[in-house]
Amino acid sequence: MDTIKHSVNKALHGAQNTAGKVEKDIEHLIQPVQQSVFTRFPILFTLLVTFGVSTTFLAIEKIVLSIPYLNSHPFVMLVIGLGVLIVTGTLYKKLG
Q1: How buried is residue 91: exposed, middle or buried, by Cβ count under 10 Å (0-12/13-18/19+)?
Q2: Radius of gyration of the chain (CA)
Q3: Res 32 pLDDT > 70
């Protein structure tokens, strides 16, 4: 019984070593191909981020302007915006 356990343990240890070696070899082979998106396509990534940010800001502006009270009272809009910035800044400081 001990010889069977020893043989099984030896076979499992050998399989584990082989699997580890194959994994390291594959990682070494694939590593040059696995580059970040920004490194591989910097202009495309920058254009997509710029489009996303500008579209978001334009949508927020149109939503705020569609509220009649805020559209006719820009001072209230300024106070609300500053209030949001103060609250988020305070929260950021408290969270570290």
Answers
A1: exposed
A2: 29
A3: no
Alpha-carbon distance 85 to 55, whole Å?
21
Residue with more model confidence, 62 or 36: 62
Report how far Cα 23 is from the mean position of its chain's Cα atoms.
26
Q: C-alpha distances in angstroms, 50 versus 6, 44, 60, 71?
A: 62, 10, 16, 27
Per-residue pLDDT reduced to its tens digit, 5-24: 777 777 777 778 888 888 88
Residue 11: both structure tokens together: 């076979």
**Residue 52 and residue 30: Cα distance in Å, rounded?**
31
**HEC per residue, 41-91:** CHHHHHHHHHHHHHHHHHHHHHHHHCCHHHHHCHHHHHHHHHHHHHHHHHH
Question: For 44-74, what is each residue's pLDDT tens digit?
Answer: 888 999 999 999 999 999 999 899 998 899 9
